[in-house]
Amino acid sequence: MSVWLWIILTLIVIGAVGWAFRAVGRAIRPGPFFRDMPFGVAYGYALAVALLLGGVWLWTLPNAIFFRWAVEGFFGFSIAAYLFRLLGRSVGTAWTRKMFRAMPLTAAFGLMVILIYAVLAIFAGVIAPHGQSEIFPLANVVPGGDPAMGGNPDFPLGTDQIGRDILSRLIYGAQNTVGIAFATTLIAFFLGGSLGFLAATLGGWLDQLLSRMVDVLMAIPSLIFALLLMTIASVWAGGEKGLLTLYMVLIIAVIDSTRVFRLARAVGQNIVVMDYIEAAKLRGEGLGYLVFREILPNATAPLLAEFGLRFCFVFLTIASLSFLGVGIQPPLADWGTMVRDLAQFINFAAFAPMVASAPLLAAGSIALLTVAVNFVVDWMLHRSSGLKE
Amino acid sequence: MQSVIRIILQRLALGLLTLFVVSIVIFVAVNSLPGDFAQALLGQGATPEAVAAIRTSLGLDQPMVTRYLGWLAGALHGDLGSSFAQANFTTFTGTTSGAKTVAQQIAPRFANTMFLAGVTAAIAVPIAVTLGLLAALYRNSVFDRAVNILTLSSISSPEFFVAYILILFLAVLNPILPSLSNIYEGMAFSDRLDKTLLPALTLTLVVTAHMMRMTRAAIINLLASPYIEMARLKGVSPLRVIVRHALPNALAPIINVVALNLAYLITGVVVVEVVFVYPGIGQLFVDSVKIRDIPVVQACCLIFASAYILLNLTADILSILSNPRLRHPK
């Protein structure tokens, strides 16, 4: 009960500080800023200051290691994103320089992270110090690389329960998890996009049939449906792990293509009624020309934004499936599986923070990429919608 | 009034039809398996006679349509068949006394999941609506931007990342809440709440972000309307503008947002229950998927899908009820 009392007392004190702040401001600086300030805003300022002070206080505590790491990571990434934007503003063609000038920091952060992941994914084989399924006789090496603490400089992030290098697996995870998610999204877009445009151009019974089918598929929550189909796929695939991964790609692609279909059809329907489509039809152009040369170029902006969002959903679905143990199969290194395998290390956080960070690094890699893509998509949507609120 | 009842009945019929088609999809998907249940049940080295005996006893020798109708009729009566794992159990022990039907397995877990969802909703809805309102009021301020970044990050993080971060800070480093939710029958309510709080908080973080963003968008849309400007111009205080003029009209979109996000909870519940070993229906579902216990998978899938359809239907009906313009389409 005393906890609640403390919280209420703190809030009251903050309220008093906010009120005093406004009163002092009114006395010192006449003018509309303080005069028209509602109490809620003053309270907000006081609350922000209190949160900041609390953060600084936590920072100075000797055993708040994870909090310090989080803050350091936050500021490190912010500074890196700022430098990245500076670099983008001074290097490159006139077009990219102009783009970087108008870019908010969040979008610069997103672009930077996506670039880093792309490099990691493409050159994983060169960057990673060891193979992804290479098993060393040293299992459970403590991360940190300090021999006195039970580490090994060969394995900066330690090894897992059966002796695989965690750093190498994290790097290969970029290749496997991101690569598979990217391929899945491409298939989903090809499938959903072409069917959606086809439904929009042709209309009639084909449109009705496809739309009703998509309605039914969308009535089942996607993760649940994916799990159901994975059960069946695992029977079909038998013991072959590679085949099961392929089935997973196809299943998620089909499930997600329903969402793409909806968007492509809606966008396509708006374009089909335009005069230039009419003109093309009168010229006697074929269906392929209509879809790929007339509709597709005019639908790129919404589709591109949707591609980013869809990639996030696919990526998260695959990570969740892997975390639940039915997604990407070993020996392929994958972040979702790594989180599940290393999860129990979190319980050592109190006395060995480095050990506990391994599963969080894997889960954090997933979160970082989706956050980055979302930031970029947010910015793109904001830019394409112009000055709209 | 007549038209309202007609619209609701129409939507209900449409929902039932969707559910019916979804049940067909689930049944066909599951029954497209090569081999059959009997083979899977007995494993390798089963004599053909034994397989045939099981097939007749489970009714697998009937045509697919008959089996589907039988399954549907059973499901409507609350009889979802018996699970493979339990059937294996009875063949090994030789008794049927300890075996449970799928319905008996699911019922207590369903109640647990509803409890978790209820606790989550009770925490998330007030927070999300308040934050959404504040963000809309002070839009484009520092507060709005900070909330925007925070919610975007929490939407994009996988549920298990949020869950493990919460475990790290609230269970391991500062042992305030238990990291495993072992819930059993006959538990005191406060105890149960204590065990449920961490999974509920995880779900809250994810759902609140969605709900808050949608509430913000709905209110901003509303604040641009002429009657709000009128109220402001005649000198009504900002709080009064919100409470008297904006909120009653915003109720419809907000209710819609809440119902849609409760539907979203259904998917989120699966991963979170696995992380916290919460004995709910999501965990049963994942476990059954792993051991290919098809009757349980089928039943869970049907339950999830019906809850999803029901919540979407509720959102639909409520938004029609609260918006007269939708009731009288031009």
- Separate helix tally of chain A: 16
Principal-axes shape call of chain A: globular
Query: Into how many domains do the coordinates of chain A divide?
Result: 2
CATH topology of the largest domain in chain B: MetI-like fold
SSE order of chain A in H/E notation?
Answer: HHHHHHHHHHHHHHHH
Kindly identify the CATH topology of the largest domain in chain A.
Answer: MetI-like fold
| The CATH homologous superfamily of the largest domain in chain B | MetI-like
The total beta strand count of chain B reads: 0
The level 1 CATH classification of the largest domain in chain B is Mainly Alpha
Supply the CATH superfamily name of the largest domain in chain A: MetI-like
What is Rg of chain B?
24 Å
The chain-level structural class of chain A is mainly alpha
Work out the helix count of chain B.
14
Oligomerization state: heterodimer
- Bin the helical content of chain A: over 70%
Q: Could you report the average pLDDT of chain A, rounded to the nearest whole number?
A: 84
Query: Biggest β-sheet of chain A: count, sense, barrel?
Result: none
Strand content of chain B: under 5%
> How does the overall form of chain B come out from the CA principal axes?
globular
CATH class of the largest domain in chain A: Mainly Alpha
Biggest sheet descriptor of chain B? none
